[in-house]
Design brief:
2 copies of one chain form a homodimer. Helices cover about 40% and strands about 20% of the residues of chain A. Chain A is of the alpha+beta class and about 240 residues long. In chain A, the strands form 3 sheets. A 4-stranded antiparallel sheet of chain A has the order 1-8-3-6. In chain A, strands 2-7-4-5 form a 4-stranded antiparallel sheet. The interface between A and B is large, with 47 and 47 residues. Chain A binds a DNA duplex (30 and 30 nucleotides) through helix 6.
DNA sequence: CGACAAGTTGATGTTACTCAAAAGTGGTGG
DNA sequence: CCACCACTTTTGAGTAACATCAACTTGTCG
C-alpha cells in the first residue's frame, strides 16, 4: 500500500475505508457516491438480515454499528463480530444464496447498496476482496480472544481492534473513538456477563489505561495496552 | 441438494465431499483424481503453512487432520479451526497473497494440489465456493461455542460438528468416527485446559453419552446430545 | 524393557457467574 | 419543568466453573 497518498479531508467513511484497501478509479468513486444516495435506515436493535435468508444484494454500512449475532435455544446471545461504517455485508463470493448469521443494528444504521465492481480486476473488486480477507481475520482474532484471553485481555484487545478498524474509515483519533455499545452488548461480544464487564472496565479505568465518556472511549496508554495483549494489526498483503 | 444421488462406494474422501457440495462433471472428477497423484506429506505436529506467508496454490487434504492455529506471545495456543479430509486450504478468493493463520498437522497429513476449476460456472467452482461458505459457518460456530458454551456443551457441540463433517467425506458412521486428537489439542481447540477436558470427558462417559476407544469416538445417544446443545447442521442453500 | 507422551487424579486457587438490589441516565409526556 | 419510566450502570455477597500445580498411572512404540 502506498504511504504517500493523501486522502481528501471531506470523504465519508465508506470511500475512506475502501480507498485505503485499494486505490479506486474516478468512476468507481462515483459509483460509491451513488451508493450513498439510495439508502436504507435500520433503527437500533432491529434485525438487518435474518440467518438463513437468501442474500439479495450487497450493502455497505454508511453509518452506525451493527453486528453478526447468534441466539442460542435458551436465549443466550453471542455477538460473532462487528460491522462498522465502511464494512460490507452480503457480498456474494460466488452465489451463496443464504446468510450464515443474523445481522442486527447496535445503533441506528444507514445502509447503502454496494455497487457491483465494473470488472473483476478493478480496484473496487480488489477492495471488496481485501475487505473480505479482513473480515476473516477479525473472526480468527475473535476466536483467539474468546478461547485464550482473560476478561481483562479481551476488553483491551477488543478496544485496540475497534480503534484500528474505525481509523481505517477515518472515524478514530489515535487515542479517542466512539464506542456506542452497552456493557451488556460488550458482554455478549466478549463472552462475559455485563456485571463482569463492568467490573473489568473499572479496573482498566483505575489503572489509568482507558477512559469512557458519553459513548466515547479514550485509550490513555496505547503502548502499554498493546504490550499487555501482544496486539498487532492484521497484515493484508505485501504488494 | 439432490437426495437421490447414489455415491459409488469406492470414492475417496475428497471426491465424496466435493461431489456432495455440487455435482461434478466427469472431466472435473478426473482433475480431482489427478490431484491425488501429486501429493505432499506432512508429518504430525509439523507446520503446513506459516501465518503471513504468501499463498502459492490451493491444496486439498487427502487424508489426516490439520488445524489453523494461533500461538500467543506467552505460548498459549488456540486452535482456530480444524481441517479434515476433503477440506480445502489456500483457495484464493481473489488474490489475497497472505495467509491469515498458520496451519499445522495434527496427524500425518497427505495434501493434494487443488485443481483449478475449468470455468467459474463449473460444478467444481461451485463446490469450492460452498466449501468456503461452510468453513465460514464453522468459524461462527466456534465463536458461539467459546463465547457462550460450558466445557460440557463445547465438547458435545464439537463432537457433533466433527461427525457431520466427517460424514460429508464418507468417514463417519452415524455414531462412530475417528478422533485423532489428544486431550491437550482438544483443550487448545475448545479454550480449556487438558485437565478440564479430561474431567469433562469422564462425565460424558459416565452418563453413557459417548465412548472413546483408540482414537475413535462413539456417540451413544445422538438425539440427546443434539438436544443438549441445540445442534443443527449448517444450511448451505435451497437450490 | 525402557522411555516418553498421553491420560488420570487430588488439592487448592482464581476467575467469572448468579442473584438481587440500588443508584444513575436519558427520554417522554403532562 | 418535573415526574415518571425504562434502561443502563454499579455494588455486594455467595457460588460454580475452570485453572493451576504436581504427582502418579497408563499406554505406545522403538
Amino acid at each position: 500500500m502506498s504511504m504517500s497518498r493523501v486522502s481528501p479531508v471531506s470523504t465519508g467513511p465508506v470511500i475512506r475505508r475502501l480507498e485505503g484497501l485499494s486505490p479506486l478509479a474516478p468512476d468507481e468513486l462515483a459509483l460509491l457516491r451513488d451508493a450513498e444516495s439510495s439508502t436504507r435506515m435500520v433503527s437500533a436493535h432491529r434485525e438487518i438480515v435474518r440467518e438463513g435468508q437468501r442474500v439479495l444484494s450487497g450493502s455497505i454500512i454508511l453509518s452506525g454499528w451493527a453486528c453478526r449475532v447468534r441466539i442460542l435455544a435458551d436465549g443466550r446471545r453471542q455477538i460473532l463480530g462487528l460491522l462498522l461504517p465502511g464494512d460490507l455485508l452480503g457480498i456474494c463470493r460466488h452465489h451463496n444464496p443464504v446468510t450464515a448469521t443474523s445481522v442486527t443494528a447496535l445503533t441506528n444504521v444507514v445502509l447503502g447498496r454496494a455497487p457491483r465492481p465494473p470488472d473483476p480486476t478493478s480496484g473496487l473488486a480488489e477492495a471488496y476482496a481485501r475487505s473480505g480477507v479482513l473480515e476473516e481475520a477479525y473472526l480468527y482474532r475473535q476466536i483467539a480472544r474468546l478461547g485464550r484471553f482473560s476478561a481483562y485481555e479481551r476488553i483491551i484487545d477488543f478496544l485496540l481492534e475497534v480503534r484500528d478498524r474505525l481509523a481505517m474509515a477515518g472515524l478514530a483519533d489515535t487515542d479517542r473513538f466512539p464506542l456506542p455499545m452497552t456493557q451488556e452488548a460488550l458482554g455478549d461480544l466478549l463472552g462475559l456477563t455485563s456485571v463482569h464487564v463492568n467490573r473489568t472496565l473499572q479496573v482498566l479505568r483505575r489503572e489509568g489505561l482507558v477512559e469512557f465518556t458519553s459513548s466515547m472511549a479514550k485509550l490513555k496508554d496505547v503502548d502499554r495496552l498493546v504490550r499487555i495483549v501482544g496486539y498487532s494489526s492484521p497484515v493484508i498483503s505485501f504488494d
